[in-house]
Amino acid sequence: MPSTIEKLSFVTPMPDSPWGTYLSQVDRVVPYLGGLARWVETLKRPKRALIVDVPIEMDDGTIAHFEGYRVQHNLSRGPGKGGVRFHPDVTLEEVMALSAWMTVKTAAVNLPYGGAKGGIRVDPKKLSLQELEKVTRRYTSEIGIIIGPHSDIPAPDVNTNAQIMAWMMDTYSMNVGGTATGVVTGKPLHLGGSLGRVKATGRGVFVTGREAARRLGLDLKGARVAVQGFGNVGSVAAELFAEAGAKIVAVQDHTGTIFNDKGLDLATLVPVSRTDGVVGFKGGDVIDNESFWNVACDILIPAALEGQLTAERAQKTKAKLVLEGANGPTVPAADDILADRGVLVVPDVICNAGGVTVSYFEWVQDFSSFFWDEDEINERLDRIMMIALNGIWEKADKHKISLRTATYAVACERILMAREERGLYP
After folding, report:
1. Is 117 in the active site?
2. How many angstroms separate the CA atoms of 117 and 109, rounded?
3. pTM metric for this prediction
4. Catalytic residue (one of 81, 117, 320, 395)
5. Which of 45, 218, 236, 347 is most buried, taking the most CB atoms under 10 A from its CB?
6. Are the C-beta atoms of residues 68 and 54 closer than 8 Å to each other?
7. Dihedral of the alpha carbons of 277, 279, 280, 283, in degrees to the nearest 10
8. How confident is the model at residue 3 (pLDDT cuts 50, 70, 90)?
9. Whether 186 contacts 193, CB under 8 Å
């Protein structure tokens, strides 16, 4: 019987597209699901996809329309959880894949959430602050029919931040007639945000990377690290690796790529990158972007957008360890090449799960109106990440499979067990 996924009319996945990559990853885990495999189609389709029009009056008096999405992939284990990205290339297919990866990610670290994601097709750099607020508030009003503290909790993602979360929280609160701090996470501290949230994703990349390096016998002191993407995730991970004695030899962002064989000075690079991009930094040589993928390094951290580590680039890299700071950065063909070459990949659905873990802490703190200090948050984060990673590693060793397939095996078993135990309604 042909797969029922072919009946979906709103997306035609290409092999290396985000949704196509996700479907390929699900197919690889089916042999390890046992009797739960009868429910696997649950994983191959989103529960709910909302497409909204976002009209606003621009500063010059014209009316502009932007296309917005909110996708809830699976809610079997709890309310939806996932970020909102503002990017001109956002598509429904991309948001579907990102929501599905959130389903797997939250289950992998055993948080009581399902997966969701949102986005608007807009370049926020071309909007004034007033226009950005209007877009955010109108989008929040449009998706307000499906989000909420007990149904779907947005968070920051690409080109969104604490201020945008504050506007989303306020808009939702005005519509329900009361302050609902738990409707979003990643908020400013004085609006119910959590200490440690901004650095959480990058910290999770470091914690999982440190353990992976230990298992490989790779000493972090003197290890050479290349980082693609230098926002919150990439820069924080780079700083933590540097503190552990590693050398950050190459960094790439939207402005270009810089390289210094002796190591980049992060104390100067990080503040410069926030205003001028990494090419504004004078302590390294500017190289062409494609050369980034074959610089001499031990650890490669793709922390930008999905689909960056292609088969061709997987052949080039000299890294022994790949830490996926971004969602879906490695296409399936590249996964196979890296495995054949003996390169260990710590997959996104565990490697970058630090952000959603501290988002969970924020959500819990909002409901109790009792807040933890940063040391306590980091301690809890590190413990959850290590427990999850060790369980995944046991699964990988038992079945002689990749960490990615092992992560999916652990996560999808939890998701489909919940689906089976809940049954079908009505």
Report:
1. yes
2. 18
3. 0.92
4. 117
5. 347
6. yes
7. 130
8. very low
9. yes
